[in-house]
């Protein structure tokens, strides 16, 4: 089983549309660890770690977001898994 880690920044109309709530639910459904939070500049930032296919599922989900979101761009920084996350948190 290959592990993966991705630090993601999502741009567009992504705050006040339940992006963090939906990311939290989706990540937990796929056993992905990490966190998600709103940034002051209007973007959403997230860190995902888990099985490579599950992390890729989260990245794909971020490209769409929840139904009320209008994602205009996504930046992904891939890294080596650290194993330092416990569960998935919403900040």
Q: How is this structure best summarized?
A:
The chain is an alpha+beta fold and 91 residues long. 26% of the residues lie in helices and 42% in strands. β2 (33-38) and β3 (44-51) form a beta hairpin.
Secondary-structure blueprint of this entry?
Blueprint: E1 3-13, H1 19-29, E2 33-38, E3 44-51, H2 52-64, E4 70-79, E5 88-90
Parallel strand pairs: 2-5
Antiparallel strand pairs: 1-3, 1-4, 2-3
Question: Your description of this structure?
Answer:
With 91 residues, the protein is an alpha+beta fold. The chain is built from two helices and five strands. It has a five-stranded mixed sheet, covered by helices on one side. The longest helix has 13 residues, at 52-64. The protein is globular. The N and C termini lie far apart (29 Å).
């Amino acid at each position: 089983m290959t592990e993966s880690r991705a630090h993601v920044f999502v741009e567009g109309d992504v705050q006040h549309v339940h992006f963090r709530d939906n990311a939290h639910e989706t990540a937990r459904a796929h056993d992905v660890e990490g966190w998600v939070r709103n940034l002051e500049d209007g973007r959403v930032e997230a860190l995902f770690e888990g099985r490579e296919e599950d992390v890729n599922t989260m990245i794909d989900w971020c490209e769409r977001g929840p139904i009320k979101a209008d994602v205009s761009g996504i930046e992904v920084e891939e890294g080596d898994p650290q194993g330092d996350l416990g569960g998935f948190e919403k900040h």
